[in-house]
Amino acid sequence: MRKTTENLLEEIRSKALEMNLSQQQVRIVELVFEHRTIAEIAGLLGITPDPYSYDALEPYIGRRTVELHYSRHHQSYVNGLNEAERQIDEARRTGDMSLIRYWSREIAFNGSGHVLHSIYWTNMTPGGPRTPGPLLTAELRRVFPSFDSFQRQFTAAAEQVEGSGWAILTFNPSWHRLDVLEAEKHEDLTQWGSVPILVVDVWEHAYYLDYQNRRWDYIEAWWHLVNWSDVERRLALAMMANVPLT
Ligand code: MN
């Protein structure tokens, strides 16, 4: 049996290589095969701000902020998601559903935290194009009178989130349009079906060391870091989705 499993894994690896998958993708395929939980796989997806080092976002966001934000805060959401998935697995096995409300909330909170942080890191780059791509420009034009008006609304949303949360540019594949949403914490005020394509973290941990309580200054600085190529890519992928309401 063990031999068979190893043979199959070997087959998967060589198929994956033929398909030009990265090492990380190959590892994910292997894990799926080994019946690991989704959270463990998500944990492996990597939370590293890989394209840049901790100090690459300076002077807009300081090295220490990125380091703490990534290695402690984001990591803790991944750990929390893994733990919640393990506990849910256990509940399914034993049939004891008495704590299911608690673990469901943990999955919503930590899972949303992991999703949004992953997008946040890739939404930023020290040296990307300074303007939105053609697809985003066209979609923005359908709903905003100008790029400035989009920026004003996004900035205001980020500035006004009550407590800890996010401003999020979304594309909804059910009715094919952009919207600006806020999230309190990571998951409250979500609109079902919306795909986040540009996000800014306005939890204090994202800016306190650099800007103390001056959230507006941080948001203004953050605009200098937006990776418009990544936003364009995310929009293109969201637009390919077809999710009917009925
Ligand atoms: Mn954060």
What can you see in these coordinates?
The protein is mostly helical and about 250 residues long. The protein has 2 domains: about 1-120, Helix Hairpins, CATH 1.10.287; about 135-240, minor pseudopilin epsh fold, CATH 3.55.40.20. The protein is about 55% helix and about 10% strand. The protein contains 10 helices and 3 strands. The protein has helices spanning about 1-20, 25-35, 40-45, 65-95, 100-120, 135-145, 145-160, 210, 215-220, 230-240, and strands at about 165-170, 175-185, 195-200. Strands 2-1-3 form a 3-stranded antiparallel beta sheet. Helix 2 (about 25-35) packs antiparallel against helix 3, helix 3 (about 40-45) runs antiparallel to helix 4 and helix 4 runs antiparallel to helix 5. It is globular and about 55 Å long. The model has no long low-confidence stretch (mean pLDDT about 85).
Q: Topology, please?
A:
Elements: H1 2-18, H2 23-33, H3 38-44, H4 63-94, H5 100-122, H6 134-143, H7 147-160, E1 165-172, E2 177-184, E3 195-201, H8 208-211, H9 215-222, H10 228-240
Antiparallel strand pairs: 1-2, 1-3
Helix pairs in contact: 1-2, 2-3, 3-4, 4-5
Mean of pLDDT: 86
CATH-level-2 architecture of the largest domain? Orthogonal Bundle
Low-confidence stretches: none
Full CATH superfamily name of the largest domain: Fe,Mn superoxide dismutase (SOD) domain
What is the total tally of β strands?
A: 3
User: Over the alpha carbons, how many angstroms does the gyration radius reach?
Assistant: 20 Å
